[in-house]
Amino acid sequence: MSQHIVVIGSVALGPKAACRFKRLEPGSTVTMIDQSSLISYGGCGIPYYVSGDVSDARELCTTSFHMVRDPQFFKDVKGVDVQILTKATRIDRENKRVEVENMNNGEKSFIDYDQLVIATGASPRKLNLPGEDLKGVSYVCNPDDATRIRDGISKGEVGNAVIVGAGFIGLEMAEAFADMWGVETSVVEITDQIMPRLVSPALATMAQKHMEEGGVNFYFGEKVVAIEGEDGKVTRVVTDKRTLDADSVIIAAGVIPNSDLAKEAGLEVHDRGGVIVDEFMRTNDAAIYSGGDCAIVKHLITGQPVFLPLGSMANRQGRVIGTNLAGGDARFDGVVGSFVVKLFESSLAGTGLSLETATGAGFDAISVLLIQMDRAHFYPSKELMTLEMVVEKETRRVLGVQGYGSAKDALVGRINSVAAILKNKPTIDDISNMEMAYSPPFAAAMDILNSLANLADNALNGINRGVGPDGFQELWDKREQGACFFLDCREEADAAEYIKRNPDYWHNIPQGQIYQHLEEIPKDKPVVLVCNTGARSYEAQVMLDDRGFKDVINVQGGMAAIKKYGVDV
Q1: Is residue 395 situated within a structural domain?
Q2: Going by C-beta distance under 8 Å and a sequence separation of 6 or more, which residues neighbour residue 356?
Q3: pLDDT per residue over 277-328, tens digit each?
């Protein structure tokens, strides 16, 4: 029996659900409505159009075979009727119809449905600042925003840009301004790091330093209090600590789910916004589904509701909804929270919980940090990769892995490997013995993921006790107090320059000679061991433990991490 499906929203989830259903029930009717004239576009690609990586804004609205995804395309190719500039104003659940308003003339009418999909997406979080309506102040929502921003830059109207927010969009836009256009770019972030809560301060600082080398300035712990301008155009951003010149301002302070329509219809909505759905993507009304950026789903590690606005998730949920509209029983169990962001020639990526979010969720957890080559050490083209693993102490369960490395596929490949199994509650033993495809051009024989899990095992067993580069920074800052003994375990040639710079504080005994020089190492203060990446210093730690030293600290990541973190040794 044919049915009429109505889909409210036509950016990511809506079109996916509509087209999947239509393929399963070609004889049924699908009507997709949207209050905008722009539909089915790749919003995540907007920063890359601004940067010039994507040459034409129309590419954000086309298929892989270069057909524009407009209403005619959906009618001719997909069999889906699309009504643009049509706003859904009310859902009448009792009579199963949607009240809509024509955005051109204000006329209202009703569209009956058998089943309904709410795919209303999310809206940028407004800061309600004085001056937000000035010319040159933008949110990054759709291709029109991207075109306006890029046109201003290409016309030479932008010499200084200020980005408000150091999350995904903020960092991507900062790169776009600074890298492609050479614009003096500043990022203002109210917290004390980039990508707050998603990565540790150590990884965040490494990425921040790299972006600073690319010409981006950061101001942390600052709140924007006003945006000022002249003759209707922005000229300055005022924080609670300084004033920054600005010809362009991007507000990237996150997004809020568009769930008011659902709430007004009596559907269950989270206290902070977002339609609540079950594993079938159904609302508390069996005839209404929802997903994408307007919905709340389950976090598979914490078990708590979570809002995760990602285009990839919206597309996967859309297929689930399309299947179930046709009588299927497809499930979307939830998310573990996987991400990656490109930052010039590097990237930050992660899955699961950071140490901050793990402890905040009630887990008794630790984290360990490792730096290792992303392929065989003897292969000519190799790069250092930094990974951090978060582990629950008692159960040895892996709660998350985050990393910093090159902008190529090696880092995100490792993250995805862990993401695929996180919902099954893997332990460090599972990761230690995880089978990885191996060939010297692609990985080391003992892959960095295997080594990371082994490090976590050693840390839990108390035989690799250490700090990351941030912990080393704290110890090094107190060097003049003589509280620690800094011992470089590398060969003399590697340590020489540091001894020359810091003759009173930096000491050198190669790891292989530790037993021959024990009398040179004090037992009455902490011994801080350093090597290139933390491997030889770990061996030295085992040796000193064997000889009765009680307070030995291994610097995880070694000099590689210290340099990336920006410690001035």
Answers
A1: yes
A2: 197, 200
A3: 999 999 999 999 999 999 999 999 999 999 999 889 999 999 999 999 999 9
Report yes or no on 334 lying in a domain: no
Helices and strands in the chain: count of H runs, count of E runs: 17, 31
Are residues 225 and 185 part of one domain?
yes
Global pTM value: 0.93
Side-chain half-sphere exposure of 266, counting CA atoms within 13 A: 6
Are 534 and 554 spatial neighbours (Cβ–Cβ below 8 Å)? Answer: yes
Are 362 and 430 in the same domain? yes
Compute CA distances 266 → 114, 138, 325, whole Å: 18, 33, 21
Is 344 in the same domain as 451? yes
Identify whether residues 216 and 234 lie together within a single domain: yes
Contact, 282 vs 329, CB < 8 A? no
Residue 531 placed within a domain: yes
Residues 213 and 163 in one domain: yes
The answer to whether residue 333 sits within a structural domain is no
- Whether 44 sits among the annotated catalytic residues: the reply is yes
Give residue-wise pLDDT tens across range 175-226. Answer: 999 988 899 999 999 999 999 999 999 999 999 999 999 999 999 999 999 9
Q: Which residue has the higher pLDDT, 64 or 272?
A: 272
* Distance between CA atoms of residues 307 and 337, nearest Å: 10
CA gap 199, 369 in Å, rounded = 12
One of 44, 61, 294, 531 is an active-site residue; which one?
A: 44
Residue 56 has pLDDT above 80, yes or no: no
Between helix 469-477 and helix 201-213 the angle, nearest 10°, is 90
Residues 154 and 183: beta-carbon distance below 8 Å: no
Structure tokens, 331:
């499930």
Q: Could you tell me if 402 and 422 are in contact, meaning their C-beta atoms sit under 8 angstroms apart?
A: no
Based on the domain organization, do 239 and 317 belong to the same domain? no
Residue numbers of the domain that contains 63: 4-41+56-121+256-325
Give all strands of the β-sheet with 115-118 in edge-to-edge order: 81-83, 29-33, 4-8, 115-118, 288-290
386 and 316 within one domain: no
* pLDDT score of 57 more than 80: no
DSSP string, 240-258: SS-EEE-SEEEE---EEE-
CATH number of the domain where residue 215 is located:
3.50.50.60
